[in-house]
Design goal:
Layout: H1 8-18, H2 22-43, H3 47-64, H4 74-93, H5 113-116, H6 121-129, H7 133-144, H8 149-156, H9 160-181, H10 187-191
Length: 192
Amino acid sequence: MAITEVDEKSIHIIKGCIDEDRRAQKDLYTIYYAMSLGICLRYANNREDALSILNEGFFKVFKNIGKYDFQKPFSIWIKKIMTNTAIDFYRANIKQGFLLDVSLYEHAIVEDDSITQKLNYEDLLAMVQQLPPAYRTVFNLYAIDGYGHEEISGMLGIAIGTSKSNLHKARGRLVQIMEVQGVKFGKTQEKA
């Protein structure tokens, strides 16, 4: 269970981490491993990259834990660090050629919630991981983490039109992937 409120046990673990107590660090890592890995997997090409992001993220958590504001939920603080670490990883590993500045796609984006409601988390994660890094990053930031195009533009150093374009293309690719994999989800059985 993740620490969502700052109770006595949570304060003890966080203060132990501030004091560089290995046991407290292990406890914090254990508590937040699954949640953090889930975030990292959404942004990574594969599990190995996700684990690299995760390890770098926890390094940043332990390095900066003294800056944590005890008045705010710790889980939100750690999620932000993991997301920012994933973005840093993306920036360090992406070739600029993947970022397409196509302002022609600034039109409204059609959402198709009926398809995504039928998928489980693992299926959607596997599909998102098939997206090119630029599309995947914008999709995660917008659709999952709730950032707006202006914020994404600033975070990734791209134009707002590029953010909108990459989101549009990510959604289109996800629909294509779902159609191709639809056989695996039992759609052919419906025809019988």
